[in-house]
Amino acid sequence: MPVLISGVLKDGTGTPVQNCTIQLKACRTSTTVVVNTVASENPDDAGRYSMDVEQGQYTVTLLVEGYPPSHAGVITVYDDSKPGTLNDFLGAMTEDDVRPEALRRFEAMVEEVARQASEASRNATAAGQASEQAQTSAGQAAESATAAVNAAGAAEASATQAASSAASAESSAGTATTKAGEASASAASADTARTAAAASAAAAKTSEANADASRTAAGDSAAAAAASTTAAQTSAARAGASETAAKTSETQAASSAGDAGASATAAAASEKVAAASAAEAKTSETNAATSASTAAGSATAASSSASEASTHAAASDTSASLAAQSSTAAGAAATRAEEAAKRAEDIADVISLEDASLTKKGIVKLSSATDSDSEALAATPKAVKAVMIEVQTKAPLDSPALTGTPTAPTPETTAAGIEIATAAFVAAKVAQLVGSAPEALDTLKELADALGNDPNFSTTVLNKLAGKQPLDDTLTALSGKSVDGLIEYVGLRETINHAADALLKSQNGGDIPEKPLFVQNIGALPASGTAVAANRLASRGALPALTGTTRGSDSGLIMGEVYNNGYPTQYGNILRLTGTGDGEILIGWSGTNGAPAPAYIRSHRDTADAEWSEWAMLYTTLNPPPDSHPVGAAIAWPSDAIPAGYALMQGQSFDKSAYPLLAIAYPSGIIPDMRGWTIKGKPISGRAVLSQEMDGNKSHSHTARAQDTDLGTKSTSSFDYGTKSTNTTGNHTHQFGGYINSYWGDSNHTSFQPGGGAWTQAAGDHAHTVYIGGHEHTMYIGPHGHVVIVDADGNAETTVKNIAFNYIVRLA
Question: Where along the chain is composition biased (Polar residues) (predicted)?
Answer without folding.
Answer: 704-716
